[in-house]
Amino acid sequence: MKEKVYLYDTTLRDGTQGEGVSLSVEDKVKIAVKLDQFGIDFIEGGWPGSNPKDMAFFERMREIPLKHAVVTAFGSTCRPNVAAEEDDNLRALLESGVKAAAIFGKSWDLHVTDALKTTLDENLRMVADSVAFLKSRGLTVLFLAEHFFDGYKHNPVYALRVLEAAEEAGADWIVLCDTNGGSLPHEIFDTVRTVKASVQTPLGIHPHNDGELAVANALAAVQAGAQQVQGTINGIGERCGNVNLVSVIPNLQLKLGYDCVAPEQLKQLTKLSRFVAEIANMAMPNNQPFVGNSAFAHKGGIHVSAVLKDPKTYEHIDPELIGNKRRVLVSELAGQSNLLAKAEELEIDVALDRQEAREIVKRIKEREFQGYQYEGAEASLTLMLLEAAGKLRQLFTLDSFKILMEKTADQSISSEAMVKLHVNGQVVHTAAEGNGPVNALDNALRKALETHFPCLAEMYLTDYKVRVLDESGATAAKVRVLIESARDGEKWSTVGVSTNVIEASWEALADSIRYLLWKEGCEEAERPEQTEARVGIVNH
Amino acid sequence: MKEKVYLYDTTLRDGTQGEGVSLSVEDKVKIAVKLDQFGIDFIEGGWPGSNPKDMAFFERMREIPLKHAVVTAFGSTCRPNVAAEEDDNLRALLESGVKAAAIFGKSWDLHVTDALKTTLDENLRMVADSVAFLKSRGLTVLFLAEHFFDGYKHNPVYALRVLEAAEEAGADWIVLCDTNGGSLPHEIFDTVRTVKASVQTPLGIHPHNDGELAVANALAAVQAGAQQVQGTINGIGERCGNVNLVSVIPNLQLKLGYDCVAPEQLKQLTKLSRFVAEIANMAMPNNQPFVGNSAFAHKGGIHVSAVLKDPKTYEHIDPELIGNKRRVLVSELAGQSNLLAKAEELEIDVALDRQEAREIVKRIKEREFQGYQYEGAEASLTLMLLEAAGKLRQLFTLDSFKILMEKTADQSISSEAMVKLHVNGQVVHTAAEGNGPVNALDNALRKALETHFPCLAEMYLTDYKVRVLDESGATAAKVRVLIESARDGEKWSTVGVSTNVIEASWEALADSIRYLLWKEGCEEAERPEQTEARVGIVNH
């Protein structure tokens, strides 16, 4: 029986403290659902007392059933000289409707006297009262001892008394925070082992990465007896980030033999990492340990031949265990079987022979090399598979488009687009305005097609993301555009790549429309009398 | 007396194995000179036997006197069944003219029999002969035991015999390599300690970062008795990279009390890191430990007030010790004193009264509400402060611009921009093409201004980021554009926000130019005769 280590994700709260990280409520909901599927135990969603966006997240989550994870709200202990039940911050935690709350309190005497400006005894009262109050309302309570390791160095007796206060008040977990992120693994190990000897409550660790040691610090804490690790996906977070759960999990599970998630869930690790990077619009470093594109890429000739003979000669783990892959020439057979599995997953019926499958795998690889990414754009992948299998009718083709953007001397701005399409043998030539060049193009395209395909009227774009691929090229660099569309609650994503942001957007827009037309059949489009009847309506 | 840990840099050899890393001979020379100034002990320049570029580097370095560092060449032991003095690879090492050589040999039995296809005894002969041969020619010899930690796990007796063979042959250093990068800190510690007990030769450690544990592994090895760390600047290298010396050095020196470089040299650490990133044309992550832009950036309101009272409350080291600086993030600017602290940090001399400061804070908050973000765009913030203080001359103003983007029936794409500006009382009206609308606008803007402000010719854009702010609006949503520009190694960032990606880009582009003009003075721009003289030159 393997020992369990609990995973506590704070991407949605501490992660958003990272410079340049900003997540909408819907982004947070999407990430929470994926974290749950992956097997995370606690999902910290925000600080309900601090802002309305975080409160809105907890409201949304009440409607969404999770399989496994406990949605957790973050807050602090009550203020000095305020009773816990009178404290707005603690009340906001209750109002958020969560079943678990994580509250931080001071454990470094310097912070109590100098930052909080209260007495050491009053701080103990605040910790105890706050924990007891939340426990009395039926919550699972995690007490986060802020700056614990620095505090323990300066005044071990007081730091331990703070933990004892939380324990006596009934805390379910005591989490030791390396808030400044500067502790070393041997310090973490020794301190956790000492704490373990005097505290019965299960311990957690909350490391930051200021010394580039956060992953090692998490492992050291677990080896010394901690049973929970708090971190973020891809290590996002304030300053140098929180500990990167994406690296902690495979180290714990594959190397140290702890139980974190099921093996099938672990295979989703690479996808989870890339999904969060995509939603947060953060460039993933290729050399990211475990899940990076280069993590199992073999360059040197000696390495390649050895790794093909025996992967363990140059690979520390089997990349498949975490859903990543080796990037030596992938065997074509493996490519083909993967492809058919993917087609099945996408619920498309393609009968491909060996040669066709080889061709598609080759095409996908070429396009990925150009910068396309199909993990976040499965509708575009579906279209490519259908096309290769000869199952996609060309319902429209582009003849040309023009976009004119103007900022005049009076500083007013306008954007217009003209499109010329071939639809069912007819030429459709129309124009529209928009509040930007891509929006104008989008509007013109729909205007041209809605007449023929009424189902497009109910489709709308829900997300539009631009990522610069080769940053050294700056405004001349390649960009990848990801578009998410929705109709009737169903959503799909498409991708376009070009050095020209408009061209990349056009590709993704066209794919999103083609996907819907394939999915819905859109048969009414072929009756010319209906087409004519509708022309008048939409020609506004 | 502090114990010395020797620094061995392999940025120029193992670093260039990283995906996308490519350094010219001159790049390598520049980096070597900086590494020497910084206090690196060994600079591994390349593998003379493997390619002519590496040989050319060693030739160049013979002309360049270094103050401290020993230029070192990399190679392997002789081939099976070939005498060391007959081996081309070892001869190339001698021909390179270096005083020190690092040769790798197998220490994992599996690699000897399966990859090298020879006997365990022959491998010992190869190690001993190769070391003895190079020693007999007067070189300092470092023996690199490839895959030592994996080998030691599988066959500790043989792994140790390999080290003994190198020691008996006279190796000056024995370096233990975690070639696959998957070892854990406690394994490294235990193994190095065991080796230390049976080998008298000084030990080094060569970790890779596949488990996100390389820095911890380097520290563990030193704590167990290793006296040399081999790594790269910024951790570049194959797969997930080599260990990052930029993080190893301050951990060893500031936290563990070892002696690596002089304190004045340590203050150059941030510059060194950024210099190498610049030469290697790699984007530095803002959250890079110790030297990143965000490494000492404080966002949360509680943190800011505490850190201003006492930096050690939220900083693990004093950033000045490594040449980095504290940044108070603007979003938390709450009042006049913070604003003035910021102005001082930005090195701008503004004398604001209480009322003016209030106005600026209000303006910043309004613009942040609109979607501007000044955390990543301090040049735009600087301009705003200067403007408010009446210290910014308007050197140019926009009259109008037009952009035409066209995709024709033959599917070719073009982007053109026209701009009309007022510069020094003149109207400049010009046009340019680009490989996208923003690039065309950028080109037209520079073309219009370079005549008047020649310093713009040396400025270039290094990064361009687009973030959609309100995703529900999709292509009609607001976007934020962040642009990073550089000149002479100095970088600055600017921001623009609009529902129109082109307009937002224009704002950021214009700010980046205005910032440089302010910073540089650009006085020659005001002499009309010079302006006229240059018109002919640039009007291409």
TrEMBL record, chains A, B:
PROSITE patterns: AIPM_HOMOCIT_SYNTH_1 (PS00815), PYR_CT (PS50991). Pathway: Amino-acid biosynthesis; L-isoleucine biosynthesis; 2-oxobutanoate from pyruvate: step 1/3. Keywords: Amino-acid biosynthesis, Branched-chain amino acid biosynthesis, Isoleucine biosynthesis, Transferase. Pfam families: HCS_D2, HMGL-like, LeuA_dimer. Its EC number is 2.3.3.21. It catalyses: pyruvate + acetyl-CoA + H2O = (3R)-citramalate + CoA + H(+). One of its GO terms (molecular function) is 2-isopropylmalate synthase activity. Gene3D superfamilies: 1.10.238.260, 3.30.160.270, Aldolase class I. NCBIfam families: citramal_synth (TIGR00977). This is Citramalate synthase. It comes from Brevibacillus aydinogluensis.
